[in-house]
Amino acid sequence: MKAYSFFSLGVFSLILMFCVFRDKKANVANTPSTTINLVDSTLSVTLQATLSGSTWIVNDASVSSYLSQVALASFSKTLSNFQSISVTVASDYSFAILEGKASDDSGSQHPVGVEYQLTGGGGTTAEFASKDKHTCTGAPCSCCNFKYLNRQVVGCECYQVSCRVEQGGKCNHTVSTTQ
Predict the structure, then answer these.
(1) pTM of the prediction?
(2) How far apart (Å, rounded) are the C-alpha atoms in residues 173 and 139?
(3) What is the longest distance spanned by two Cα atoms in the chain?
C-alpha cells in the first residue's frame, strides 16, 4: 500500500510541475512585444522601436542616417533628411517594415523602406533581421509611394493625381535582397 501511495504522489507531482511550467511558457508566448529591435547586419545597425498606443516609434535619432546609408549602399542614391518615418509591425509579429521619404536635389521624393523578418525574442522584446530593401524612382513622377498588399511592399505608384495626369507619372520599384 505504501508503494502505491508513493507512486501516486510522484505521478501527481509530475503532473503539477508540468502544468505550472506549461502555463508559464504559454504566458511568455502570449505576451505582446512592446519593444522591437530592427537589426541590419549588412550595415551593422540596430534600431529600437517601442509601442506607444497603436503606433510604433523609433527611439533612435540616427534612423534618418540609417535610411540614407540604405539608399546609398543598396540603390546608389544620395538622399538625406528623411521625413514621414514610420514602422509597421504585422499583428502576428512575423515581419516589420521601416519606411521614410527624402527628396533629392531636383525635389523628387523617394521612399526608402526596409522589410524585416522576425528572428526571435520573447516576453516584451522581439528581434527582427533586415530582409528586403525597397525604393521607388519616378519616371517622371516626383511623388512616388510604396504600394502594399497584405501590408507588404509589392511595388510603387505615383500617389498624387496631378503627377499621374500632368506628367504621365509612373514609378519604378527596385528591391535589394539581403542574403
Answers:
(1) 0.75
(2) 11
(3) 93
